[in-house]
Each structure stands twice: as C-alpha cells, then as structure tokens.
Specification:
With 691 residues, the protein is mostly beta strands. It has four helices and 38 strands. It has a 22-stranded antiparallel β-barrel. It has a five-stranded mixed β-sheet with strand order 1-6-7-4-5, with no helix packed on it. A two-stranded antiparallel ribbon has the order 2-3. A hairpin with a 2-residue loop joins strand 4 and strand 5. The longest helix has 21 residues.
Amino acid sequence: MKIPVRLTILFILMVFCREATAREIDPPQEPIGRHITFERVTVEARRPLTGIGTQMTELDTLALRDNITKSIADVLSQNSSIFIKSYGRATLSTASFRGTAPSHTQVTWNDMKLNSPMLGMVDFSLIPSYFIDDVTLYHGASSVGVTGGGLGGAISLDTRPTREEGPALRYVQGISSYSTYDQFLKFNYGGERLKSTTRLFYARSDNDFSYTNYRKKDFIYNDAGEIVDFVYPKEKNRNGSFKDLHLQQELYYRTRQWGDLSLSGWYMDSRRGVPMLNVDYKDESQSRNRQDERTFRIAGSWDLVKLNHKVYGRAGYTYTDLRYRYLGDVGTGTLVEMIHSRSYVNTAYGKAGADYYIGEKWLFSGNVGVHQHFVKSIDRAIVTQGGEQTTIGYDQSRVELSAFAAVRYRPTPRLGLAANIREELYGSDWTPVIPALFAEYTVSHRGNVILKTSVARNYRYPTLNDLYFMPGGNPDLRPEKGITYDAGVEAGYKGKRLEVTGEATYYDSYIKDWILWLPTFKGFWSPVNVKEVNSYGVELKAKVRYGFSNDWWVYMDGNYTLSKAINHGDPVNWADNSIGKQLVYIPKYSNGVTGKIGWRNWIFTYKYLFYSERFTTSSNETHTKIGRISPYHMSDISLERAISTKIVGLNLKVAVNNLFGEEYESVLSRPMAGRNYGFFIEIIPRLKKKK
C-alpha cells in the first residue's frame, strides 16, 4: 500500500506544478491620466523567503579565481569548514563535511548530481576552480532542499552567463615548479538575447617533487660492518605525472515570452599516475600505476519567471569511462599487467518544478527529479602462477527518483518559518519521508543580527559498489539514517568603507547504520552496517573588507571548525577498541585565513591553513608513527600587478606555496610537496572599441 500513496503525492505535486505554469498574472496598471500623491513612503527591507533558516556558505569569487593551478578541492580546504582529504595535486581529493564520510556530501553541477553511482563520492581534484562561477555550501539539514543523502551537507556548483557585452577574451599561462604548466582560455560573447562562454583548461606536470622520507632509514656502517648511525633518505615523488584537459561550452538564450534557455557541455580527459607510497621499496621501473578518465556532461535548463511564480525544467546526461591499470615485475624483468579495471557509467537526468508566491509572506515550492544509472564495472586479474586470466565485475542499472515539496512563511518581517519534505526511490525501494524544519528570527535590523535553527532527518542509500562489487558486495545493506540539529547566529555591518559579516553555528548529528567496509575471513573486504556515529561541533566564519582610501584596501576571510566525530556503534569483536573514539582522518580542529592588501594595481595575498592531528586507526593509537598524522600549518603568499594599456590588459602574479617548507602528510605514507613557486600571466585583449 506504500507505493500507491507515494504515487498519489507525486501526482498532486505534478498537478500543482502544472497549475503554477498555467497562471500568468500581469502587473497592475493605473488608468492613463490618473495621478496619485503619497504624503509619506516607508521602505522596509525584507529578507527573501527562499533562504529561511538555512545554514549555507557562498564562496567569494576572489577565492575561485585566486590561482589557475587550484581545483575546487583547494578552494574548499582554504575557504570553508570542509576537510579535504587529499593525496596531493592531481590525485584523489574527497570531502568530509562535519565529520562524515565522502559519500555523505552530495554535489551538484547546474542542478545535476556529480556523485558517482558506483562510489557515491566526488573527486574534487578533477574540477578546476576556473570552470565554476558559483559555489554554495549547504550545511547539515539545509541540504534537504538541494538533494537527499547529504548526511553531512551538499555542495552546489554552478555556471552563469557572462555580464559582459560583445566579445571578450581571456588567457592565463602558468609556469610552476616540477615542470608544471597550466593554460586557461576563456572566450565570452554577450548579446542582447544570446550569450556564449567557451572555456579551455590544460595542465601537465612531472610532479616529481623532492622530500625527506621519514619512513625509511639509510644505515651508516663502520669498518667492522656495525651500524653506527642512520640518515633519512632524500627521495622524489615517483609515478606522479599527470595531464588534464577540460573543455566547456555554455549557451544562454532569452526568449521574448517563453523564458530563459541554457545548455552547458563539459568534456574532461584526465591521465594520471598514482604516486608510489614512501614505504614502497620498489624502483619506479618495477611497477606502474595509472588512472585514466574520460567524462562528458551536458546539462540543459528552462526557466520561466512571472509575477508571482516560477516554472522550470532540467535535463542532462553524463558518460564516464574510467580505467585503472597496475603493472608489476613478477621477476622476469618486464612489466606485466596485473590489474586492469574498467568502468563505464551512463546517467540520464530530468527534473521539473515550480515556485509559487502568495503575497509577500508565503512561498510554495515543489519539484520531481529522476536519475537513471547504467553501470558496467569489470576487473580483469591475471593469476601469475598458471598464467590464467579471470574477469569479474557487475553490470547493473538503477533508477533514483526524488520528490520534494516546501512551504516558507514569513508572518512578520522579523520571523521566518519553513518546512521541507522529500522522499526518494532507489531501484524498487523507497526511503522513509525526509522532513526538515527551519526557523529564523531577526533580533536587530541595524546589525543584521539573525538567529537560525533547523532540524532534519535524512537517509542515504547504498552505492552500486556497496551492493554489487565483486567480490564483496552486500545486497542486504540498509540505508544510512541520520538526524541533524543546527543552531546559529549571523550578523553583519555595511558602511561606506567598512563591511563586516560573521556567523557562528553549533551542530549535532546522529547517523545510524553507517556503512563500513571490513575485511572478511575469505580474504576480501565487504561492506556492513556497523557504526552509529555522533558528529557535533562548532563552525565559525567571518569576513572583513575595509577601504582606507581610493588607493588602499584590505580584505580578510577566516573560518574555524571544531569537529568531534565519535563512533558509538557496537564492537565488531572482543578486540574492537574503536568505540568512543574519533573517526579516522577527521581533524578535531581546523581553520583557514585569507588576507589581502591592495594598493592601486598591486595585491598581496597571504593564506594560512591549519589541521590538527588525524588518526589513521579506528582505535586512535598514538604509540606508533603510523597511528597518527601530525598537525601541520600551511602558509602561501602571492604578489600580483595589473597593467592596463589601450590594446591589452595584463595581470602578472608570483606565488610561493608552502612558504616555510612544512614537511607534512595529508594521508598516511603520501608525502606532500615542500616550498614551490609559480609565475602566472593573464592576458585580456581589448576586443571592443571604445565609444
């Protein structure tokens, strides 16, 4: 009886969207020749209905355009409360939002999901920051309004039409340490109704930085052959070279009566080596790890905005060809292919929805979205003893349907209330209803002091690898269940020269049936529902802008996070010491600060980033060197100068990363680069003639 009831809800929602589309109300007009005199006019600013009670962070454009070498992973780690677990540039970079797993952070691009249906997560190192125009983070309960499954939160990545009129060209060339070369080309055309943006990004690097290997020792012997001392060897990052190509085309068209249309296409070709561990004693010529990925995405949208309602539609398609190869020397002196993994992912996407206003106090919203996944994953292993070849894998498809409805109400200018409800279908199984409640109260209009609170229940269903991976998939897994509470305050001041904003949030989240891959007695790993996690903490952020004069200005943006992610599940066995301990790779404390000083056409930037210790074992062992990763402080600086002529604009920039040569690891046995340098030049030809 559950399915008919839910289908009825979906039908009502679709009818509602249709009715909203059919109604078009023209603005009221006064009769010609009639004059109205107002003795007194009171203008009162009202906060928008769309964001009532939501905890969200909108990243500054300055952060996205800071450096051509940066990916969205770098931008998030420096400018948000999210912890990025990174293996270095051009290697896997995943997000931990409020102490949760990477699969608990849902990511969308132009409203289409980017999370892999196989792994459930997103590799942010594959997203150049110059390819994204807007980044919005939805913390905890606020993610329900974007998509389901965001037990930690959601990240919305969007592109937007150019604001420039006529043609515009921009080219950036970067030359950095370790034979690293980055190129970015952007061409815009802005017409009255048609706008176009073309972006091209290409990066390549040997990525062979040097480091001191503290996981190995070179012993020093005396004449009698006795060990008298040792030194830590100097080594280079091995097998870390990469080549990344991205091409993006966007078209925007404004019709006269039928709204706005857009079409965005994004092609990526990534060829990357998987760097060797610093505990690997093999020579680089004795093994080879490579991961290649080709992905094509296309997303289209239609938006029709009228006086009191908006109707929209979305459609998209994603194709991914992912290949991983491992070649090793089996003693013959030649490399033999030992692992060849190939995965093909096809995803079709569609969505329709509407927003309907009743006066200035009510807003009703609803939408229905669907993703259809087709995944074929094949692993070919060569058994060296007999030379036999074995192929294992799975070929599965799954439909994911999500229905959403929301009502927002502002009875007074100070008070706002909102309720969201979402329900999702994966395969043939429905999640329970996903509700979220929000409230906000404006304490002071003068200081923009606003109190916010929210609560939500959420669910995340297992990925296709969790269910069907061979060997080890577990088709009996239950969805992960979470409930999140948020409470916070924000304030701000904007004057003629000074602008200050700040926000503080406390959150408390409980997740049951956490999916964890554990080793089995059969020799392979398998996922099970074992953990109950309590994640709680504090998020602080502040931003200051001040202009001393027409020539001098300063800018500062900072964030601080206290995150406790504690395992409260049942012990797996009698020797399980993980209960009551912090989850692996989750720092308890982290903070980042970005400061800029500008004088005329010069800008000096300083960035600071800190992560506290992270444990590599669930029992939080500290008596061994591999049980914890030491805290580290990171400092980067840059100096840039803008030059303007009649025919071209130039921006020159010099950057020093890891200014103090910090020796650190973000992931166990994965050393990171020391002090390194980069030089960048941006060229902007004057294509438009001055009138």
